[in-house]
Please model this.
Amino acid sequence: MARGGACPNGSDFFDCGYCIHLNDGTCDEPGTCPAGSDDYDCGVCETVQDGTCDEPGTCPVGSDDYDCGVCETVQDGTCDEPGTCPVGSDDYDCGVCETVQDGTCDEPITCPVGSDADDCAI
Model:
């Protein structure tokens, strides 16, 4: 308005914080689109660690891993619960075997060594 009137709809999208390339699969920040305007295409989830898995609806796949129960550091030898990983997602590294007492020795493939002692007759 200070420079001669209002702009036509869509003509000043960058300054208005809007991205005309939303949800096209290409991250256009910070070139064509202003920072924060093309979050979905840039792999950003605005509701990270809010307790709700928003993939693949509101958030791009892989951006809301924590809420979706995914731990990226599974079987790296470090128990990352409850810090980096959601509880129950890093069971292997935390020495937990989910198939205890099922009659099958799942060590050392599915379960960490020593976690399936009942089935492995140790």
In short: The two ends are 79 Å apart (CA to CA). The chain has one helix and no strands. The helical segments are 117-120. The CA atoms of residues 26 and 41 lie 5 Å apart.
